[in-house]
Amino acid sequence: MLKQKMADRLRRSGKNRDAGDYVLSGLASLYNAGLTFRNRLLDRKRGVRYLPVPVISVGNIVAGGTGKTPMVRTLARMLSKMGLKVAILSRGYGGGLEKKGGLVSDGKEIICSVSEAGDEPFLLAETSSAMVYVGADRFKNGLDAVARGANIILLDDGFQHRRLHRDLDLVLVDSRYPLGNGRLLPRGILREDPVGLLRAHALIFTHWTFCETIPRERAEALCVWAEQAELPCFFCQHRQVDRALPLPPPEKAGKLMVFSAIADGRGFADTLRQQGLTVVLTLIFPDHHSYGPSAMHQLEARAREAGADALVTTAKDAVKLPVPSEWSMPLYVKDAEVSFRDHAAFEEWLEGRIQDFLEEEQS
């Protein structure tokens, strides 16, 4: 409850401000001053380290999820199709290897547990053929990946990780609320001033609905600004796909309990409702929440109390839970896949940029 109240405060506008808003605004000013000083140093390339292969960063300028994990997976698949050996570098937030770092997968075999890797890197290791590393020192991990044969690096959530040079900065923007309430942390959800988007090489608008109308005036205004800045824009939608046991159609699925520990848990449940499914209970845990050994029995008990016939969760949550076949109630797992409005155009643009990098290395 407290977490949701804080989340709602971060997204609300400047109207009807209270004392708490003024305190948070003061802290946001201090945060901005420190960030501005840091960025000026990095703009001069002070302390920036370079890897011997091209680095592509996928990031955003807001706190919370914009669909980075499925986008990183999609890019890894695209790059592999181009004949490149890909390594993904992630912070591994919440995992046991976050501080000391380490290899999660060599592209063929997963080497550590989900508790060591963190949920998102482990999911990337399960669902892609890329090498996956976690740890705060991404330069060190990058060197190790190159030694293992990687010839291109994907930096997961790297837009603010400027101490590692990147050749391509892709910034994801949620079309529903592209800049949150327009305020910096901790008064809003912006990680930095929107002018930082000028460092990007392209903006990718996520959750851009293709077949139905949604309010996206702010996203469209940002597109106009990007075009004026000669910043390419691409558009995609995250579609849900089944993992393991397929979720039946609405008329056969029965009543569902939905639970998740992701940045947009409410949106996940709303998407299921939009598909005509009957959701009788939604449990939203903090992002990266670690489920305990008794979680399966506790969740099933809550589902039965609510009169649910089955449970639904995300692939990011499922990697931290017993496999669906071990549950006494049906457990359905949904994953997110990226669908570009014009996949061919984005792939052609990306391949052109990669070719430029490789030609520069050879010259």
TrEMBL record:
It catalyses: a lipid A disaccharide + ATP = a lipid IVA + ADP + H(+). It comes from the Bacteria. The keyword Transport does not apply. It is an enzyme of class 2 (transferase). Pathway: Glycolipid biosynthesis; lipid IV(A) biosynthesis; lipid IV(A) from (3R)-3-hydroxytetradecanoyl-[acyl-carrier-protein] and UDP-N-acetyl-alpha-D-glucosamine: step 6/6. Transmembrane segments: none annotated. One of its GO terms (molecular function) is lipid-A 4'-kinase activity. Pfam families: LpxK. Its EC number is 2.7.1.130. The keyword Ubl conjugation does not apply. InterPro entries: LpxK, P-loop_NTPase. ATP binds at V62, A63, G64, G65, T66, G67, K68, T69. Keywords: ATP-binding, Kinase, Lipid A biosynthesis, Lipid biosynthesis, Lipid metabolism, Nucleotide-binding, Transferase. Belongs to the LpxK family. Transfers the gamma-phosphate of ATP to the 4'-position of a tetraacyldisaccharide 1-phosphate intermediate (termed DS-1-P) to form tetraacyldisaccharide 1,4'-bis-phosphate (lipid IVA). This is Tetraacyldisaccharide 4'-kinase. It comes from Desulfobotulus pelophilus. The gene is lpxK.
